Structure formats: C-alpha cells, structure tokens
C-alpha cells in the first residue's frame, strides 16, 4: 500500500513492516538505508533459536554488505571450501564444487536471525515485539482522522498504526496474501518432504564410521533415486545437521514443527552409504517438513495500491535465503518514482517457469533437466 510519493515529498516515507523474521529484518535494513522512517512490528513476545541450516550465497551477501551485515554472517557459516556430491549406496564422490557456488555459507538460521535483529537495532530501528497485526487497512480505511492517502494496520489490541507504506513479511500463513488475492490460498503438497535434524556433534563423537564427517566443517550430499541427503557439520564438529528429501504423499498441515518418525527415516537410509547412515541411525529425533507450494497467483495487485511480491522456488531448491534479500531490493525500488514493474515481471516469469518444471512428474531435480522449452516465459500482461 503506498501513496505514490514523488521526489518533492518533504518528509521521508513512513514504512510499516509486519514481521521481524529474516525477510522483515532485511526489509527494515534496506528501507532504513534508503532514508525511510521504519517501524517493525512482530507478533511474538520473544524469539528462540529455531530452525536448522540455512545458506547465504554471494547474491545475498553483496546486498547485506551494503547494510553493514556481512562479516558477522560469514563467521557463522560453514567454513568448508568445497562440497562433495556422492553416490547414494557407497558414498563414492561423483563431483566436487566450491561451496559458495552451490549453497553459500551454511549456518544455523537462528544464529543468522540474531545477527539480523542486532543490526536492525544498531541502525536505530526498534523491533516492536508482541504487536500482532489482525487487519491490513486500505487507504480510505486507514485515514480515520489522519492525513489523506495513508495506509495502516490494526493490531490485536485495537490500536491502528498508520504510515505511507505497509510491507507484509508475515510468513507462510500470511494474512496479507489473502488481502491481495481476495480468497484463502491453501498450500498443496508437492509429493515430497524433508526429514531434518540438527544436534550437538558430541552424539557422534565416538562413532568410528562418522569420523570423516565430524572432525571439521564439511558439507556432503548423497544422491539416490527420488531421494537425497545433505549433511552439514559446523564449528569443527560442535554441531551436526542432516536433511533427507524423499517422496511423500501424506496430507498434513503446513508446519515448521511436525515431528518426524525416525523408524521411517532409518528405513529410507537402509541402503545408503554406511557412514552417513550410521549418523542418521544414532539421531534421536527429527522434524518432518512437507514441501508445499501454492499455485501461481492470478494477480499480483489489488487496485493500484496493494501489490504482492513474486514468489519463490520450492524449499528443496535451497533458494529462500537468496530470495529474501533480493525481494527486499525490489521492494525498495518500488517506492521510487520509476517503473520497476518490468524488472519484477522478468523475475516472476523466470521463477514460474522453474517451478513449473519442478512440479512436472514429481521431479525433484529440475535444475539438471534440459526441457526448458516446455515451459516458456509467461506472456506479457499475464501478471496484471
């Protein structure tokens, strides 16, 4: 929502950001460095160290460096130079490539998030905790005695917060998305899921089969038929993480916290490289993340003042950590008086094409396919 400020606007735009996750914090940093006045609203009363591994690659780091958030993140990430791609059954190395080319600096999401929050506050932007947004107000609704053309949000306690622009970074269960679309947009199962575990490396310290993967920072991926397993060791073995992507048709709600069944996990790795299979068998618990998606949305705007960002790849492509900062750059450009629509359209078209290939025939390795001509770019005007 925006009042279309011009270069003659005497005061900086007031930007309300809903959600202080990685996307919300990145947005706050971008808007602050562009000279806008920022308010950052978060529904939680406090944050915990949630999630597991998350990678930051060169595209994201270039943007974050501009905002004073680079060296802190690099120190958190995996320090291995290369990543090994291995055969599922015996672990034979099939290929090796620089980690920055594949996954970037892989660290714990919670540690990255803590640094984002710290940098936001260093920039003078207060993270207003316990401020749950229950409604987004369009311009006419948002006035209520304020200046004409303001937008706003209504909080759970009834307070209305007004500004020139509202940017919703409110997560997978986004309230704002329904405002744009005009209907509830339910997730769909992709046919795949990820079992994920993150734990202290001490659990594997005495396991001889695992020593190669526990004594130093390293990243490996085992590739099998309709299955792959990524292993990540941090802080010279202090922390260990694995992610097992597999076929799955179970229909459960979209959740970050669904417990996984370790008996199912152990059965899947029964014929895997004994070294990593030993690490999985010793794992006490894991989470079961269903890889969900939503259909390409039929519109990205509701009138002139409410727009939706372009949407990203499925989770198993490991693109989310790059997309958030890049989204932020484009959000920022939308607030200036020039036509950013063509740039946004190009990105939307590219992503839609890749996701189409990804979902076709339940294939989870679309980046290795050569049938791009089957999914041509979206026609001009399709997004309007």
Overall description:
The chain contains 12 helices and 18 strands. It has 384 residues and is of the alpha+beta class. A hairpin with a 3-residue loop joins strand 17 and strand 18 (306-307). Helix 2 packs across helix 11 (320-334). The protein is globular.
Q: Could you outline the blueprint of secondary structure elements for this entry?
A:
Elements: E1 14-18, H1 22-33, E2 37-41, E3 53-56, H2 58-66, H3 71-76, E4 82-87, E5 93-98, H4 99-102, E6 105-108, H5 109-122, E7 127-128, E8 133-137, H6 139-143, E9 151-155, E10 160-163, E11 165-168, H7 175-181, E12 188-200, H8 211-214, E13 218-224, E14 227-234, E15 239-247, H9 262-268, H10 274-281, E16 287-293, E17 301-302, E18 306-307, H11 320-334, H12 341-359
Parallel strand pairs: 1-2, 1-11, 2-7, 4-13
Antiparallel strand pairs: 3-6, 4-5, 8-9, 9-10, 12-15, 12-16, 13-14, 14-15, 17-18
Helix pairs in contact: 1-5, 1-11, 2-11
Proportion of residues in helical segments = 25-40%
Show unreliable segments. Answer: 1-5, 142-146, 303-311, 318-323, 329-334, 336-341, 364-384
Distance between the termini: 16 Å
H/E series, N to C? EHEEHHEEHEHEEHEEEHEHEEEHHEEEHH
Read across the widest sheet, the strand sequence of neighbours is 5-4-13-14-15-12-16
- Total strand count, please? 18
Structural class: alpha+beta
Q: Compute the average pLDDT.
A: 79
Strand content: 25-35%
List keywords for this structure.
globular, 7-stranded mixed beta sheet, 384 residues, disordered C terminus, alpha+beta, 26% strand, 29% helix, single chain, 4-stranded parallel beta sheet, 18 strands
């Amino acid at each position: 929502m925006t009042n279309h400020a011009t270069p003659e606007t005497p005061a900086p735009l007031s930007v309300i950001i809903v959600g202080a996750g990685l996307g919300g914090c990145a947005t706050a940093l971008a808007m602050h460095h562009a000279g806008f006045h920022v308010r950052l609203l978060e529904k939680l009363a406090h944050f915990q160290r949630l999630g597991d591994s998350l990678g930051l690659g060169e595209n994201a780091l270039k943007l974050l460096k501009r905002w004073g958030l680079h060296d802190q993140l690099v120190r958190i990430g995996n320090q291995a130079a290369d990543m090994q791609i291995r055969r599922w059954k015996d672990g034979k190395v099939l290929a090796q490539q620089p980690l920055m080319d594949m996954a970037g600096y892989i660290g714990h999401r919670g540690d990255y998030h803590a640094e984002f929050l710290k940098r936001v506050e260093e920039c003078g932007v207060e993270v207003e905790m316990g401020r749950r947004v229950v409604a987004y107000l369009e311009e006419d609704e948002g006035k209520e005695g304020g200046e004409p053309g303001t937008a706003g949000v209504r909080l759970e306690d009834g307070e209305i917060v007004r500004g020139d622009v509202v940017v919703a970074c409110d997560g997978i269960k986004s309230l704002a998305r329904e405002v744009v679309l005009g209907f509830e947009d339910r997730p769909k199962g992709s046919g795949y899921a990820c079992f994920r575990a993150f734990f202290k490396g001490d659990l594997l310290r005495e396991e001889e089969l695992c020593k190669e993967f526990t004594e130093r920072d390293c990243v490996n991926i085992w590739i099998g038929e309709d299955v792959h397993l990524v292993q990540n060791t941090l802080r010279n073995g202090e922390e260990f993480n694995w992610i097992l992507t597999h076929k799955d048709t179970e229909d459960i709600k979209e959740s970050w916290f669904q417990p996984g069944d370790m008996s199912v996990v152990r059965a899947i790795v029964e014929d895997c490289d004994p070294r990593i299979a030993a690490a999985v068998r010793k794992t006490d618990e894991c989470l079961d993340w269903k890889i969900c998606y939503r259909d390409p949305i039929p519109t990205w705007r509701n009138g002139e003042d409410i727009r939706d960002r372009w949407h990203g790849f499925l989770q198993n492509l490991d693109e989310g950590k790059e997309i958030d900062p890049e989204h932020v750059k484009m959000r920022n450009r939308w607030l200036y008086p020039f036509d950013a629509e063509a740039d946004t359209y190009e990105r939307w078209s590219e992503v839609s094409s890749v996701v189409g290939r990804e979902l076709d025939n339940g294939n989870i390795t679309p980046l290795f396919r050569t049938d791009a001509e089957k999914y041509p770019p979206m026609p001009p005007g399709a997004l309007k």
